[in-house]
Each structure stands twice: as structure tokens, then as C-alpha cells.
Amino acid sequence: xxxxxxxxxxxxxxxxxxxxxxxxxxxxxxxxxxxxxxxxxxxxxxxxxxxxxxxxxxxxxxxxxxxxxxxxxxxxxxxxxxxxxxxxxxxxxxxxxxxxxxxxxxxxxxxxxxxxxxxxxxxxxxxxxxxxxxxxxxxxxxxxxxxxxxxxxxxxxxxxxxxxxxxxxxxxxxxxxxxxxxxxxxxxxxxxxxxxxxxxxxxxxxxxxxxxxxxxxxxxxxxxxxxxxxxxxxxxxxxxxxxxxxxxxxxxxxxxxxxxxxxxxxxxxxxxxxxxxxxxxxxxxxxxxxxxxxxxxxxxxxxxxxxxxxxxxxxxxxxxxxxxxxxxxxxxxxxxxxxxxxxxxxxxxxxxxxxxxxxxxxxxxxxxxxxxxxxxxxxxxxxxxxxxxxxxxxxxx
Length: 397
Ligand code: HSE
Description:
- It is a single chain.
- The chain has helices at about 10-25, 25-30, 60-65, 80-90, 100-115, 135-140, 155-170, 170-180, 190-195, 195-210, 230-240, 300-315, 375-385, and strands spanning about 1-10, 35-40, 55, 70-75, 95-100, 120-125, 145-155, 220, 240-250, 255-265, 280-285, 290-295, 340-345, 345-350, 360, 365-370, 375, 390-395.
- The chain has about 400 residues and is of the alpha/beta class.
- The protein folds into 2 domains: about 5-130 and about 300-315, Rossmann fold, CATH 3.40.50; about 140-295, Dihydrodipicolinate Reductase, domain 2 (2-Layer Sandwich), CATH 3.30.360.10.
- The strands form 4 sheets. A 6-stranded parallel sheet has the order 3-2-1-4-5-6, with helices on both faces.
- Helix 1 crosses helix 12 and helix 7 packs across helix 8.
- The chain is globular.
- The termini are far apart.
- The chain binds L-homoserine.
- L-homoserine binds near residues 130, 185, 186 and 297.
């Protein structure tokens, strides 16, 4: 018997899932322990020249009501109609594997609970870190640890842009255009460059690690649009790379503090060498000390690889419900305010400002670039206002 699955969405990731499946069908079937095939591909557009043209449908109900379809790969993106479709599939006992971080970050608790109630699985390995296996390691391989902190480069587009700015002196807009052409960026690149995509991913990690749904609106999020080539040059001289860091850490008061900000990463840290579209996630736990995960964080086949891994798992363990899930959260009182975030800081200030800083890099454009001692976010903000700072960024601890 052949296990049939459907692919919702034929964009970058969805078309990658179809391509990878047929490329490696024989070995995929060996891993799944059964023959497999794609029965439907859902998309509103027409693909008359596709070798799989006969599989396309515009009608979701055809997939939902076909009992032969045991598993669904959701690669549409966005909360709706993805949420309605995914929930309906789970209620019918069809396992779902998704690459849709917005969906998991907004509705993960509900979908995981729905899957459990209907004896099937909601998998989302592809929603964080593209090709990198991070979801399963966090809740299975590392389950024996008290995880105190997770910090990562979780957006390929911004890491690609920052790398181009560093290595090629390429202006921001040109690097963004290139990232879009390579299929890394979201449909609306605002989500990448303003940090919303990384925010969704740290929400998923936070919810998984700490057991309660963390919503994007509870997470302080700042993107990379204020970073200038002069910051890149100055931070390099000071011994740092600027990276968009998504981070969550356990606080002494028991709360958690998630955030997304561009940060200075010391050249002593392995994270500073994570370049181009690559992502990296550093996990800190009492058993493991630090473990780093590294790989391609965006792109067609890397993301499809993670989706297909989940589909194989879903087909192989059709009636096993894996226990990763987290509680819904009515309020965000377990999330610490960003005001208490503490670190050393980097400031771009008018030359001559008295920062009392330990390291200063003066460029010729009337600006100084300084790193400070430890300050809370509130103190750094006050200092920035006092000195008319043009930018201030934390230094990753
Ligand atoms: N736009 C995302 C990124 C895609 O650049 O990381 C992968 O989630």
C-alpha cells in the first residue's frame, strides 16, 4: 500500500518539497517503511507545464475529504487560510508538517492540542532554522537538561545582507534585492529586515523550551534597517561582527526574556563566523554546557528537507502521537520586560561625546563608535537620549 500525502502551496518551499520527494523517492520510502506518493498539490495558480500538472487542485475540500491522504505538508505561509486548513486536517486525523513560522508562533498551542486530541501529529521542524534540525533536538535529545538560554541567528535574509555589507561593502538595498532573487526573503521582506521573522522563530523556541505559548507581541523586536556601513566598519575594528540575534534566557526571578535585536558578536565567538544565509543556534543547558546547531537557514531545498523529514516521520509513525506541546497562555506575565535586559552596549555618537567607554573607534565622519560597561536596556536608552546617539546595540554575552 502506498501512503499518500498532499502539499499545500507551490511557492518556493512547496515546490521544493515536490522536487526533493521525487528526486529521492526510493530512499525516502525506505526510511518511511512504505511506498509513498504525492496525491494533491493545492495552489490557486495554474502550473500547466509542471510534470505533476495532474496533481494540482484549487479545492482544499478534495484533500480534506480524501481518506487516502494520511499526511499534509503545509507550505502556504501566513496565518489564514493556513490555520483553518491545518486545523481541519488535524481534526480528520491527518498529520500536518509545516514550514509556516507565523502559523506556529501565533497558533502553535491550539494546533498541537488539536493534534493530540485527534491522535495525529503537528510537526514544525521547518519553521525554525531551515535545514537545521533544532525542534526535535530541543524537546527530545536535550530533554534531560535545564535549558537556561537559547541564542541564534535565525534569519537567513538578514544574515546574508549583513555578510554582503561586511565582505563586499555592498549597500543594504542591493544585498536585499539579491536575497530576494535567491529565494531567501519572505514575500514581504519587511518581516525579515524588521526582525518579525526571527521573532516568530524565537517565539516557537521559547514556547517549546519553556512550555508556555509566547506570542510575537510579547517579544521586543528590532531589525537591521538602522545598521550602516560605518557601523560594520567600526564594529570590525573593535573586534565584533553585527548579527541579528534572537535570544531567550531564563531570569533569576523565574521569568523568561525573549528578544530580537542586532547585536555585536565578538570575533572570539563562533557565532561571529556564521555568514551568508546560514543560521546557527546556541543552546545552553546544565548537562550540555553549550551546543551549537548550524546550517542553511532558508532556501528551497534546505527548507524542503526539513518539511520532508517531518512528512516521513508522520507516515512512519502514523498512529503515534509525539508529546511535544505547550500550554496556551492567557497573559504574558511570565515574560520579563525588555527594560531589565542587561549587557554591554555599542553606541554610535557624535564625536567628542563623553561616554566613559572602554573602547573607542573614531571615524572621519564626525562620529565616534564606543562600547560601554554593562547597562540595563533602560539605562542604555537614557544614555542614548542624553548623548544624541544615532544607534545603540547590545554586545552578545
Ligand atoms: N525569510 C526567511 C529567512 C526564510 O530569511 O530566514 C526562512 O525562514
